[in-house]
Every structure is written in structure tokens, then in C-alpha cells.
Amino acid sequence: MSIAVAKPAFVQQLQETGVSEIRHDWERSEIEGLFNLAFSDLIFHAASMHRKYHDPNKVQLSQLLSIKTGGCPEDCSYCPQAARYDTDVTASRLMAVSAVVEAAKAAKAAGASRYCLGAAWRSPKDRDLEQVCDMVRGIKQEGMEACVTLGMLTPSQTAKLKQAGLDYYNHNIDTSPEHYGDIITTRTIEDRLNTIENVRSAGINVCSGGIVGLGESQTDRAGMLQTLANLPDHPESVPINQLVRVEGTPLSDTDSIDAFDFVRTIAVARILMPRSAVRLSAGRAEMADEAQALCFLAGANSIFFGDKLLTTENPQHENDMRLFARLGITPLNHQQ
């Protein structure tokens, strides 16, 4: 809901001139001012920014594979892979390299230009990391971008992944610094930011975003985006996830986020981080086509596709292609 508040100078300037520069010094009040704009004004400014830096009718396709599922020692309140929660997720061992490469080939044939691997670890053991590095090499040999999310990393581990040819490392901050402790207690947001710094120092592109629908306030959404936008370099990829409520997790009974509030989060992310790819990530299976279309209009230009998103449902590939056809959107090859 739009709230009548005094507009920060930046918001006033945006409404008057449509001009914004790439910044890393955002004030919380400025970001909340964007959230509080009339919906049509916010979407207009976000779409204008999107067109300045990106082709508005191209969306990058990534596919995500869980290479080691369940048994995680962390207590992330939203995650069905945490060992302490009673969910229907069965723990599994790390997949074989050959199986991962075959899955990447199939994803490429379906239109994916990036293949992403996720493992339910707090942080990887060095022997497991060597196997992941072999997976990365196999994906790169197929002519695809490679992304992994493995938990916290040390500088030596990021160096090994860089040597293997890794393009992106995903490490979400999840929510605002103020709300973080209500969602996770087994690692701090500083731990996450340290891993992001290690990844950046190794010369690997950063993929980092958050989750909305965790019971957070609009101020928390602004704080999450502020943390990302004020990094020394904006993440090259910013996934915005909608909470998928899974029975057995502490957040299974959380109220659904309003669709317009989710679109607002996409739009504000686009304005704050103009050059980044903003990825419409978890929760798409519960979104109407119209809500997804608004997200693309607001600046989302990347999605995860495929039947599964780690352990939760994702829209069928055919449904995505039908929606793209209706909207005049075509997949973006990573070389474009």
C-alpha cells in the first residue's frame, strides 16, 4: 500500500527527471521512499531504468540442480533441508560428476545458458570441493556458465573454484540485518558478507539476493536491498525469492506476501542495482502469470526454470515458454 510520506530528495529527483546514477551509498529512507511511491510511478521508473541497461524482452534462463540434498546442520527457518526439521526431504550423498554433466547437457538443450549447483552444506570439505570443481569444469566444457552455492567459503576454496572456471557463486543474505537473527541463528549476516567478499576477491561474479515473505516488514525489505546495493560492487546477479512454505519448517504457517509487494521489491532492486541481473527465483510456482509479467515489466530479467528448484516445485518448462510467447520474451544467451 502506498503511504503518504515526505519524499527523500532522491525520490523527488527521480519523479521529476527520471535520472539516477549508479550508487553505493543508499540511505534507508531513500529506499523506503521508493517502496512508498504509487505503484504505477514505481513501475515506470523501474522499467525505464531496465531499458537503459538491458533488453526488456530478453530473459536469461538458469537451471538449478541439488547435488547434495538434506542433512544440513543450519537452522534457516525457511529451509526443508535443515536436519533438525521434520520435512519430507531425504538426505543424499554428493552426486557423481558424470551425472551432473549429463543433467547440464539436458538443460542446455532445453535453453539454459547457466547451470547452477546447490549443496546443503554449512561449508564444503576440501575433498568434496575437488569433486565440485570437476563438475564446474564439465559444465564449462559444454559451453555454459557455471554457478554454485555451497555455503561459507574460505579464500583458498574460492581460489580453487576460480581455477576450475566458476563464473558465479551464490550466497544470499536472505533478509535485513535487523530481521536476520529471527530467521537464522547458526551463522550471522557478517559470515555471509565475509563469504561474498572472499568470492569477489577471487574474481568470481557474485550472485546474492534475499527472500521476501519471511514475516518481515517493508523496512526489512528496504534493509535487505540496502545491504546489497551498498556493497563496494553490486552483485552481478540478484535473486529475489518468494518464500515457499514447507510443512515442518518454522515458517510453514507464515502469511503469504501480497503479489504487489513482491513486484515492488523487484522494482526497487532494479532501480538500486541497474546493471545487475534481477532473478525471479523461488516461489514462481505459486505466482499467477499476470504477477510474473509485472515482475518482468518491473525489471526482472532472469529466471530459474526446470521442474524442481532444489527440493521445491517450479513451473513446468512448457508453461514458461508459453508465457514467454504471450509476452514476446525470448531467452537470453549468455554470450549476448
Number of helices: 12
Whole-number mean pLDDT? 88
- Helix/strand-derived category reads alpha/beta
Major beta sheet, specifics?
10 strands, parallel
Spell out the helices and strands N to C: HHHEHEHEHEHHEEHEHEHEEEHE
* Basic shape: globular
Which percent range describes the beta-strand content?
15-25%
Our measurement of the CA-to-CA distance between the termini, rounded to an integer number of angstroms, reads: 38 Å
Number of strands: 12
Report Rg: 19 Å
- Please give the share of residues in helix: 40-55%
Unreliable segments (pLDDT under 50, ≥5 consecutive)? 1-6, 308-312
Structure, described:
The chain is an alpha/beta fold. The protein has helices spanning 9-17, 28-35, 39-53, 97-109, 126-141, 155-164, 177-183, 189-201, 218-229, 259-272, 289-298, 317-327; strands at residues 58-68, 114-119, 145-149, 168-170, 205-207, 210-212, 237-242, 277-280, 302-304, 308-309, 312-313, 330-332. Strands 1, 2, 3, 4, 5, 6, 7, 8, 9 and 12 form a 10-stranded parallel beta sheet that branches. Helix 2 packs across helix 9 (218-229) and helix 3 (39-53) crosses helix 10 (259-272). The longest helix has 16 residues, at 126-141. The radius of gyration is 19 Å and the shape is globular.
